[in-house]
TrEMBL record:
Entry superkingdom: Bacteria
Organism in which the protein naturally occurs: Arthrobacter bambusae
Protein name: Uncharacterized protein
UniProt feature, compositional bias: Basic and acidic residues: 27-36
UniProt-annotated stretches for the region Disordered: 17-36
Pfam families xref list: HNH_repeat (PF18780)
């Protein structure tokens, strides 16, 4: 059964899990949330990014730790878009699952293309990245 949440319900859940603190990190939310509550991924999907969801809830977004800041910049935007175009050209479609299958194909692996998670982190959501390749 899929539960539908209004934006206000989602934001109230964030505020409750912030427990009076001014911010709420994604990992902290995932540790505090109950099984029946929305996943952090839903917030990213609905609001464009975790930071945007936190800001919409009236909380302060957290800054990515220095040692992780390069994690989303290993590949530049041109490299990401080129990988997406190559995938679409090779497969005829561009879904997250299809992209990861193409990228990790055991017969023809592509170790020098970014994972879908990096692309999502850069563009906020998969559809935004895919739209730039059309």
């Amino acid at each position: 059964m899929t539960t539908l949440y209004s934006n206000e319900e989602l934001l109230n859940t964030l505020r409750r899990h912030a427990q009076g603190e001014s911010t709420l990190g994604r990992r902290t939310y995932e540790q505090r949330r109950h099984e029946h509550e929305p996943s952090a991924h839903l917030y990213t999907h609905r609001f464009g990014s975790w930071s945007e969801a936190v800001a919409a809830a009236g909380l302060t977004s957290t800054t990515q730790p220095m040692h992780l800041q390069d994690a989303t910049t290993k590949w530049g935007e041109p490299q990401m878009l080129a990988a997406l175009r190559d995938c679409r050209s090779d497969t005829g479609y561009l879904t997250v699952r299809g992209y990861e299958a193409w990228r990790l194909n055991p017969v023809h692996p592509r170790p020098n293309v970014p994972p879908a998670t990096s692309i999502r982190a850069r563009f906020g959501k998969w559809s935004a990245a895919a739209a730039q390749t059309e």
